[in-house]
């Protein structure tokens, strides 16, 4: 599957290709190169905590490369795939790029990323990176991207409403549905019990895995969709049932967690919604009216244990067309250094990707990061195949399945269709 086949995502690019640096200007690619400028693309929107960390990373980098400037370009997440696709097709890419950890092998397989195995081997702090996270950026024994930060989704809730209606944070699915109904009824229907958007594979995965299901597995050298197992069906019926039973709004069918649920939660229209522990800054941009009454708890499972959650986060990579790959890696290592990774994680409610920092970071006592740290102890990732991006972001196989069930399509019919599409897509060449 070539990137050229990817469907464009999102609206028009916020940043034109004229902003692309394409690397340094000496073209040597040697350790001693000193380009006038390198360009780094970071996903999302500029924010004060991240800008502060990147400023420090630049200062650290310039101790080794004092004559090299760093241009930071922010790319909205919805535009990321098209932006990178255009860069791949035109050769006008960045030097360093942030990539979602579930997409690293996709871009590596398209030869969009530089092989940094040698540079990584010479990076002293790199030996302490979490092994499982590092593997997400490796393909065929080579390293193409390294972990930057990690995150995990939890259930955000209104503590004041829970106290008012004598509801305790639920641990099981039944308790969560009952809590949503009690809160919704108690507020006279003015506040929805919970948000369950259909276009939310990373959130739904917690329910799938919590029931003991899987997205897909590799058997006999081929990928086999596992959406048609009894465990997966149980998860689909429960998650879609939140909408069908009226405790989650139908208006979130066809949208993701950001296109409605986050805004409504911030404005006090939803009692519970699932999102990353990192979402507080975004909520505060919408409204600070209820932030003092917000808390989080781990995503419930059928039996009440802490189930697996989707391993969110980002990796950093050197783009294949960088003319100064070694200098680019030096900047990457400055951004992802232990000092800067911890500062970034603490400022934006993420977690650093180092074993020693996770063990001694004091995250357990934080009211937001504490439950997230518990959830981080049990995380999983998407099927490790270059075709996952096509299956999830372009074809939206799981979101389409959930949307169909929420709209009344028989569960078995929607699942069978989705499982065939998933199997076919993961095996396409």
Task: Please write out the topology.
Elements: E1 37-43, H1 48-64, E2 69-75, H2 80-90, E3 96-100, H3 104-109, H4 117-121, H5 131-135, E4 138-139, E5 142-143, E6 145-151, E7 153-158, H6 159-164, H7 173-186, H8 201-210, E8 216-219, E9 222-225, H9 230-244, H10 261-266, E10 272-276, H11 280-286, E11 294-297, E12 309-310, E13 312-318, H12 325-335, H13 338-348, E14 351-352, H14 355-360, H15 369-376, E15 379-380, H16 388-394, H17 397-406, H18 411-427
Parallel strand pairs: 1-2, 1-3, 12-15
Antiparallel strand pairs: 3-13, 4-5, 6-13, 6-14, 7-10, 7-11, 8-9
Helix pairs in contact: 1-12, 1-13, 8-9, 9-17, 17-18
Q: Would you tell me which CATH topology of the largest domain applies?
A: D-Maltodextrin-Binding Protein, domain 2
Q: How many structural domains in the coordinates?
A: 2
Strand order of the largest sheet: 2-1-3-13-6-14
Specify the biggest β-sheet: 6 strands, mixed
Number of strands: 15
Tell me, rounded to a whole number, the average pLDDT: 90
**Overall CATH class of the largest domain:** Alpha Beta
Secondary structure category: alpha+beta
- Give the CATH superfamily of the largest domain: Periplasmic binding protein-like II
Proportion of residues in β-strands: 15-25%
Helix content: 40-55%
CATH architecture of the largest domain: 3-Layer(aba) Sandwich
> Which geometry do the CA atoms define?
globular
Rg for CA atoms: 22 Å
Indicate the low-confidence ranges by residue numbers.
1-32
Alpha carbon gap, first and last residue: 5 Å
Count of helical regions: 18
């Amino acid at each position: 599957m070539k990137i050229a086949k990817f469907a464009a995502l999102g609206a028009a690019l916020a940043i034109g290709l004229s902003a692309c640096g394409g690397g340094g200007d000496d073209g040597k690619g040697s350790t001693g190169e000193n380009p006038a400028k390198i360009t780094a693309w970071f996903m999302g929107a500029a924010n004060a905590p991240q800008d502060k960390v990147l400023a420090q990373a630049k200062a650290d980098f310039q101790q080794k490369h004092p004559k090299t400037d760093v241009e930071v370009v922010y790319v909205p997440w919805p535009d990321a795939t098209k932006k990178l696709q255009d860069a791949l097709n035109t050769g006008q890419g960045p030097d360093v790029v942030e990539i979602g950890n579930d997409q690293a092998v996709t871009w590596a397989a398209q030869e969009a990323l530089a092989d940094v195995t040698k540079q990584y081997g010479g990076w002293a702090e790199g030996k302490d990176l979490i092994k499982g996270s590092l593997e997400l950026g490796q393909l065929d024994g080579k390293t193409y991207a390294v972990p930057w930060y990690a995150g995990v989704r939890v259930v955000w809730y209104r503590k004041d409403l829970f106290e008012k209606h004598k509801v305790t944070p639920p641990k099981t699915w039944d308790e969560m549905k009952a809590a949503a109904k009690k809160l919704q009824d108690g507020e006279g229907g003015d506040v929805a019990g919970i948000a369950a958007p259909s276009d939310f594979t990373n959130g739904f995965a917690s329910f799938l895995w919590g029931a003991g299901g899987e997205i897909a597995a590799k058997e006999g050298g081929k990928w086999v969709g596992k959406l048609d197992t009894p465990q997966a069906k149980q998860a689909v019926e429960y998650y879609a049932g939140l909408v069908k039973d009226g405790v989650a709004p139908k208006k979130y069918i066809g949208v993701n967690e950001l296109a409605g649920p986050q805004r409504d939660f911030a404005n006090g229209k939803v009692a519970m919604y699932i999102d990353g522990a990192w979402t507080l800054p975004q909520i505060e941009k919408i409204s600070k009216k209820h932030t003092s009454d917000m808390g989080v708890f781990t995503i419930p499972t059928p039996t009440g244990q802490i189930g697996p959650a989707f391993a969110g986060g980002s990796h950093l990579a050197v783009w294949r067309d960088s003319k100064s790959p070694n200098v680019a890696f030096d900047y990457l290592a400055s951004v992802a250094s232990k000092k800067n990774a911890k500062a970034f994680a603490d400022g934006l409610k993420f977690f650093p990707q180092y074993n020693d920092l996770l063990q001694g970071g004091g995250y357990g006592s934080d009211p937001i990061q504490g439950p997230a740290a518990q959830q981080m102890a049990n995380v999983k990732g998407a099927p490790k195949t270059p075709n996952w991006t096509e299956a999830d972001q372009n074809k939206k196989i799981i979101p389409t399945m959930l949307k169909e069930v929420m709209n009344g399509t028989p569960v078995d019919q929607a699942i069978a269709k989705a499982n065939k599409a998933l199997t076919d897509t993961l095996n396409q060449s």
